[in-house]
Amino acid sequence: xxxxxxxxxxxxxxxxxxxxxxxxxxxxxxxxxxxxxxxxxxxxxxxxxxxxxxxxxxxxxxxxxxxxxxxxxxxxxxxxxxxxxxxxxxxxxxxxxxxxxxxxxxxxxxxxxxxxxxxxxxxxxxxxxxxxxxxxxxxxxxxxxxxxxxxxxxx
Length: 155
What we know:
By secondary structure, the protein is an alpha+beta fold. Helices cover 14% and strands 34% of the residues.
């Protein structure tokens, strides 16, 4: 048993702030090959999650913000933004269920933001067809400017 309390959220957020990628997850599923993945993700402003999709029809994902605020950006196949959604813990919209195949990115909008994520396992590394060809890769020199342009949609 694990209690999801402020102490756990604080510790996870501290790890995210200290991590080079500005995010950290805490898995509740026992292994990567487990059929159901349940995890907390702490994400800080400025963390870049490259736009991606999950092509496996079983890999839709549900995101519910438990602290702070998270931005969800949806794209079409050419990379045009089709929608943005601000998810705020305790707000009017706290979560989103994304069907498999949906191009998306996730942004931390406030320091200390944490969301709960659920999706089908097992873990499979992202394939080339699941990475947005129109977006810079993580670590690419253009990634910071691209992430900033996405974050400005929530200003």
